[in-house]
Design a protein that fits this description.
4-stranded antiparallel β-sheet, elongated, mainly beta, about 120 residues
Length: about 120
């Protein structure tokens, strides 16, 4: 009986040790509209294909995704093209933003949050 308890305790301890160093993080894509009117945002990813209407001076969470199991020092910045297939912003139904949202420079990354601000300047 002691051997069985010792074996179970050892297996439990090893399992706990092996899984305790694995971390999973959620990554959020957030957009703030600082234009003079509402905008439409088309987002295509591996999981979603959606259009969002965002009022002026509003911030919206577009989607939340995960990058699988990562180390304990995460969340880690990853190239936005790992999550985004297509990303288009329009204003007044016709003007398309000149900024390329599939480039990392279009996003600010802070602790798992990819955020961006849309302004009137990118439609000129």
């Amino acid at each position: 009986m002691k051997t069985t308890f010792k074996t179970i305790f050892t297996i439990f301890g090893l399992t706990l040790l092996m899984t305790s160093c694995e971390y999973g993080y959620d990554y959020t894509y957030t957009l703030t509209n600082k234009t003079d009117s509402q905008i439409k945002v088309y987002v295509k990813t591996f999981r979603i294909d959606s259009i969002y209407t965002i009022a002026k001076d509003s911030t919206e969470i577009l989607f939340i995704t995960d990058h699988g199991i990562e180390g304990s020092k995460g969340p880690y910045f990853a190239n936005v093209t790992e999550d985004l297939d297509k990303f288009t912003v329009t204003i007044n139904e016709t003007s398309v933003s000149k900024r390329d949202y599939l480039k990392n420079e279009s996003w600010t990354f802070t602790k798992g949050d990819y955020s961006t601000i849309v302004t009137n300047n990118e439609f000129k």
